[in-house]
Amino acid sequence: MTTTTTNTISTKHFSTPSKPKPLIFKLVHSKSILSNDDLLQTDDYYNDGPFINLLPATDASLLLVNFSIGEPPIPQLAIIDTGSIRIWLICSTNFAHNHLENTDPKNIYDPSKSTSFRKIPCRDALCPGNCKIRDYPTCPFSNSYGSKQFVDGVLAMEQFTFGTSDDGIIQQQVLFGCAHPSKSAGGQIINDPRFNGVFGLGDTSLLSKIGGGKPKFSFCIGDIENPDYPYSHLQIGSGVEFEGASTPLQVRVGGAFSVVVDSISFGEELLNVDPHTFLIDTGAELTYFGRLWYPVIKQQINDSLLALGLKPNLVLKDCFDGSVVDDLKKFPSFRLHLTAKKDMVLNPINLFYQRKDAYKVFCHATRSFYLNDFTSVLGLTAMQGYNMAFDVAQKKLYINQVDCQNYISN
């Protein structure tokens, strides 16, 4: 008798874990002429949702992020700033009415009307230790800027509401600076109708909290000359993807981020510029080179413009007659050679801007950094056409030249 044994193989089907998605913010240009209805339109590509219904002013090139604060939630627009360690927002109602002339009063955040607002006392562990009296009921905060402007107020906890790309919401308790009018001397308080405050990307605890535990973020900067360009965006969270080679990222005290530029080349020539630090500052429109290096760089740029047959404008300083798009097609390549053999190419659109108030006149988008001889600042104009991805925990920066419309983590 023959016995036949049949072996049955059990097969299990394992589902692939879904990849975490980053929190995606559409960046709003400060020169956009947008109505409330325009801002309330939703888009599967971004998390517009019901959070934006503010009207940005029209007199500068900044990029703003939208979210809501408080309970009930009040929509806000704040500058994305890689040079700030904290979010701060206008809180005082009287000051806010003067500050945001174009904003509907219902969009002005009044902490006294929020059920989720909590001031931080000096004795709290969240207070950074700048209290003169430990038992004082409120912990002060202040931020100053290179333009001699400043803002101050108190630290507080509040509920922030962020929209997601799938029409959901994320709510988090966030430590922020609640700003109010200052009577301090020696500077000018920030009083600008373009924004409600600053969204400081140097706050690694915030990045970890709203990003699923990992301090990672990226932003893609499109055409800032076009206020209606719709694809500039910010991503935060563990779902942010990194591509290509990286350069070491320095996370500086105070929350600023910087990289080291080993050398700079212009065309085939290596400029006489020593290795130095470049701060990455989305709160600056222009790029600033250290005072020691700027004369060399400016002279090379001007000589190349003259060699192309372009003439300096007789009225406007640091400007030339012509068109960035039409007349600079043969302009030499300008390269920042970063540590770890990573290059960042600055094209004409990164080095110049076209004047809107003068016919066929363009100007330098670079300046001398009046605060430092050896440090430079990379501003928004230089980052046009780039995706900048920050792995804060690993201290790496990934820089890729891309079309923002087609570049977003899936």
UniProtKB/TrEMBL annotation:
Belongs to the peptidase A1 family. GO terms for cellular component: extracellular region. This is Aspartic peptidase. GO terms for molecular function: aspartic-type endopeptidase activity. PROSITE patterns: ASP_PROTEASE, PEPTIDASE_A1. Residues 63-400 form the Peptidase A1 domain. Keywords: Hydrolase, Protease. The keyword Cytoplasm does not apply. The lineage of its organism: Eukaryota, Viridiplantae, Streptophyta, Embryophyta, Tracheophyta. SUPFAM superfamilies: Acid proteases. GO terms for biological process: proteolysis.
